[in-house]
Amino acid sequence: MNGIPTxxxxxxxxxxxxxxxxxxxxxxxxxEKLVQYSPSAIxxxxxxxxxxxxxxxxxxxxxxxxxxxxxxxxKAFAGSTRFMNISRTNRVLHIGSTWIGKEFQGTGLxxxxxxxxxxxxxxxxxxxxxxxxxxxxxxxxxxxxEKLGCTLEGILRKDVYxxxxxxxxxxxxxxxxxxxxxxxxxxxxxxxxxxDSGS
Length: 199
Known about the structure:
It is globular, with a radius of gyration of 17 Å. It has helices at 26-29, 45-60, 109-122, 139-147, 177-196; strands spanning 7-8, 12-16, 65-71, 76-87, 92-100, 129-135, 151-161, 167-176. The chain is built from five helices and eight strands, in the order ββααβββαβαββα. An eight-stranded mixed sheet has the order 1-2-3-4-5-6-8-7.
């Protein structure tokens, strides 16, 4: 997967997902209900390999960039995420197919991952909008996306069949490049004001 950089900060590293390193995720992927809101099967070594093969095929087609997630603080592989539904013509892509093991949830790891990906999408990649698709029932993920500054743009009713046969409603969230820039500028100003106050 030449040309795909590793995205990293002090907390997390996102490197290209391959047919070799995905084996580090077999145990995590087998956790019960890890992807209960997703139409993808990953629970067995065979289904996980197929999942990775599809992601790599999409990469070859130019519509996806899959990553394996490594938690630097825990010094352990944590899960997977990807850029997907990439439209270079419209400069729009999705961030999705994200799952991390239960021990990594609620630690701030997911927020660190999203920040790295948004910075790369709006920066070096030159995209103008990032979208997220979330099951309407997945309140935890919806709140996480909203905390990033995303706007709920609509709900696609009975949009996707899940593995258990349930057909979900899909919430469509969007974040524009100028919105992300404004969010980061505000955070910097707030931080600078905090430092100037002598606190």
